[in-house]
Amino acid sequence: MLPPSDAFGAAMASHGVGSGTRVVIYDKFCNNWAARLWWTLRANGFTNAAVLNGGLVKWKLEGRPVSTAAETPSPGDFTARPEPGVIVGREPVLAAIGDPNVRLVDALSADHYSGNPIGVARPGHIASAANLPWLEVA
CA 91, 93, 96: angle at the middle one, nearest 5? Predict the structure, then answer.
């Protein structure tokens, strides 16, 4: 789910991100891709990032400035520092099933969670996970 840390770090540095940089992320849908980049930054030890509330859609609706000019930032000094515990594997999830002190949350659509009558691949969820579809909180 995550790119290799060294490749991610190089990509972020090439886009001008480094220590001391404030990153504001947006996309043109409902910020699901922006949230994914925020999470990837966080998983790599970068905490000075935020997701733009409402994304590009809201920005444009408010009549704020936009540009089609290509930006060429100076390279940054981004260093990926993977954060233990931000990403977990199979064993911690298996251990969490049924543990009253851990809440597993399934962010997929409700039809994936409960089984889909129209046949979308892989319906179902991890045992004891609660369903909170990401579109309901986007």
Answer: 110
Q: State whether 97 and 75 are in the same domain.
A: no
- How many domains would you assign to the chain? 2
Short-list 118, 119, 93, 95, CA closest to 106: 93
- The answer to whether residues 84 and 23 touch, using CB atoms and an 8 Å cutoff, is no
Q: Are 101 and 108 spatial neighbours (Cβ–Cβ below 8 Å)?
A: no
* Residues 78 and 14 reside in one and the same domain: yes
pLDDT digits (tens, 9 = 90+) for 109-137: 777 767 655 555 556 788 888 888 877 87
The answer to whether the pTM exceeds 0.90 is no
Write out pLDDT tens, residues 20-52: 999 999 998 878 899 999 999 999 999 999 999
